[in-house]
Amino acid sequence: MRRGIWKIHLTLICLIMLWGAARSDGATLAKLRVGYPSPSASFYPLFATKEAGLLEKYGFDTEMVYVQGVQLIQVHVSGQLDFSSISSVVYLQASVEGADLIQVATSIDNQLMKLMVHPGISKPQDLKGKTLAVTRFGSLTDLLVRPALKNWGLEPLKDVKLIQIGRMPDIATAISQRSVDGGVISFPTSVQAEKMGLKTLLDFADSGFDIPATTVVVSRRYSTSNRDVVLRFLKAYIEGTKRLFTDRELGIRALRKYGGISDRDMLASTYDLFTSRYIKKIPKVNAKGVENSLSLIAESNPKAKGRKAEEFMDTSFMDELEATGFIKSVWP
């Protein structure tokens, strides 16, 4: 009798283990590695998709890989990632140099950064002879502020001095202490900067100059040989975005888990801000955003000059999901 009970227990354990590694339709989950460069709400759609279990629904056992900044691209190009969610400028800087990376989706079409200054500066012309801080020369903060200054008739480095400071919280502190006159700061540091008394001179999200902050990229080689995988991933991602918009508690839970924010009020305000203002319901590729990003990169890299947006994007996946009625089934 004891032997029989032991066999039953062993059978149940095996069944539980098999159930944990397989989909409800009996197919084994495929391993998938997805990278993101920052615990930022900019990558909310990916966080919500994972938290909602939708990647498992579409057959994936997904490992979320956090690799800071541009290093994520190096990891992806080396073949250690299948998908990445990252800013358009970051992946395009590598792609114009020959990296095999293309964009297949876009969730946020603009940059969530602000040019913030101390209260003594009231208009762009007040910046003449002043000093602005960026994180690093050649970084997105640097690439964004230079054309903004030119649009105001100010020549970077000549009329306005630019210096490198590094971390955005350090930029905010430097402005508040009048060590510099202003700097480029992203969310959520910009919220803290406002509490420090700093003011916004330019909100890049309102500039009308699309430069996508959140894209989904793959290698062209991978997308060609694994088209069904890309389509299934995007189905999960689209459904995940829908869950993000319609399930506030799930969205807050996802950001707490992957975004490193524990304060409930901050989580709630971040959720409300991103779902009401920044994130698109349908993550179609923004060709104009790719074009603008290339123009921005061309300011410092001649290899980006004359390049076409179509070289670095593939809209066929989202087009297929629209043509087959999938997108309409999620967003009637």
Tertiary shape: globular
Number of strands: 10
Distance between the termini: 58 Å
How many structural domains does the protein architecture include? Answer: 2
Helical residues, percent: 40-55%
State the low-pLDDT regions, or none. Answer: 1-26
The CATH class designation of the largest domain is: Alpha Beta
- Rg calc: 22 Å
CATH topology of the largest domain: D-Maltodextrin-Binding Protein, domain 2
- What structural class do the secondary elements suggest? alpha/beta
CATH superfamily annotation of the largest domain: Periplasmic binding protein-like II
Task: Tell me the strand order in the biggest sheet.
Answer: 2-1-3-10-4
Percent in strands? 15-25%
The number of helical runs is 15
Task: Based on the coordinates given, report the CATH architecture of the largest domain.
Answer: 3-Layer(aba) Sandwich
Helix/strand order, N-terminal first: HEHHEHEHEEEHEHEHEEHHHHHHH
Chain-averaged pLDDT:
89
Describe the 3D structure.
This protein is α/β, with parallel strands linked by helices and 332 residues long. It is built from 15 helices and ten strands. Helix 6 (140-151) links the parallel strand 6 (131-134) and strand 7. The protein is globular.
Can you describe this structure in just a few lines?
With about 325 residues, the protein is an alpha/beta fold. The protein has 15 helices and 10 strands.
Describe the secondary structure blueprint for this structure:
Layout: H1 2-20, E1 30-36, H2 44-51, H3 54-57, E2 60-66, H4 71-80, E3 83-86, H5 88-95, E4 102-108, E5 113-117, E6 131-134, H6 140-151, E7 161-164, H7 168-176, E8 182-186, H8 189-195, E9 199-203, E10 214-218, H9 220-225, H10 227-246, H11 248-259, H12 264-278, H13 287-298, H14 316-323, H15 326-330
Parallel strand pairs: 1-2, 1-3, 6-7, 6-8
Antiparallel strand pairs: 3-10, 4-10, 5-8, 5-9
